[in-house]
Write a structure and sequence with these properties.
Length: 305
């Protein structure tokens, strides 16, 4: 990395996003899955909107909102509802492990829709072999369930969202990435509100730990984490920023074990390692040096954040 602060930001981001699965599990003590998703999105949106106001960043309007709404559905509202549903029956550590398949789904959809560089098939094959090892369908006591399917559905939704954002939003140089993130969270708030009738109209239970967990999830794990992620991308590039994927499942497994006493068996841990190897393989290419024009654009973005 170019500076020590980037390493600190990467570690903080891994802690914030890796702990989100524990916070969801704790939040279920007071709220339903859709209530958790709606609350974290609204709190995250408020944080990002305040950051935009403080820094004088323009939100704006126009046709970009159509693309932002699609990104909000697949990158925020849908997966966060699915993770809440999943963690009613699935351990938080395992949820974090299955979330690590997101880059595999992103590569697969990128291949199907012809976006970006062609992925290495070896990496995809190894990664999905790791998923197969985790589920162990050849064993009667395997982990295949509706909850784990919801986890995979959330990771798949992330993959669709990343590909869509890459095709339709990354070229918008007229807006700060933090402003786009604020727009995404604002649109996601409306989408999550539409999902509330599913199971979000029941009374909220007064459980201080659960309510504190969802507040931390929204303010820090959503609002500040998104801003931190975009700062890391502007300083180090998307490839370096994406290495947070390798750290998140480690954080989720350790926190699930330390706080909730969750146990992850050797087969699941081995599957996690295989998945991460599959995720890592496509990125084992020499890092391209930035041209002066690219460096100037990156500097402008960093200063605007």
């Amino acid at each position: 990395m170019n500076n020590p602060m980037s390493a600190l930001r990467l570690g903080a981001l891994a802690l914030l996003w890796g702990s989100s699965f524990l916070l969801i599990k704790l939040s279920l003590g007071a709220l339903s899955a859709t209530q958790i998703a709606f609350t974290r999105i609204v709190l995250g949106a408020l944080v990002l909107l305040v950051l935009c106001a403080v820094r004088g960043l323009r939100i704006g309007g126009g046709p970009v909102w159509r693309h932002v709404a699609v990104a909000a559905l697949f990158r925020s509202a849908l997966p966060w509802v699915l993770y809440g549903i999943a963690e009613q029956t699935v351990d938080s550590g395992l949820t974090g492990v299955l979330n690590a398949t997101t880059p595999l789904w992103t590569a697969l959809f990128g291949l199907l829709f012809g976006t970006g560089a062609r992925p290495r098939y070896l990496g995809l094959g190894v990664g999905f072999a790791g998923v197969l090892l985790i589920f162990a369908p050849w064993q009667g006591g395997g982990l295949f369930s509706w909850g784990t399917l919801a986890c995979l559905g959330a990771a798949t939704s992330y993959g669709v969202g990343y590909v869509y954002i890459g095709r339709n939003l990354t070229g918008d140089r007229g807006r700060s990435p933090v402003a786009l993130a604020a727009m995404q969270m604002t649109a996601a708030s409306g989408l999550a509100a539409l999902a509330l009738p599913l199971d979000g109209l029941r009374p909220v239970q007064f459980e201080p730990v659960a309510l504190l967990a969802v507040a931390v999830l929204g303010v820090f794990g959503t609002g500040f984490a998104f801003a931190l992620n975009y700062r890391l991308i502007s300083d180090e590039g998307a490839t370096t920023a994406s290495t947070v994927t390798y750290l998140m499942p480690i954080v989720s497994v350790v926190l699930g074990w330390a706080v909730l006493g969750e146990q992850v068996g050797p087969r699941v841990l081995a599957g996690m390692v295989v998945v991460l190897v599959g995720v890592l393989l496509p990125h084992r290419t020499p890092t391209a040096r930035r041209t002066p024009a690219q460096q100037e654009r990156a500097t402008r973005v960093a200063r605007s954040m």
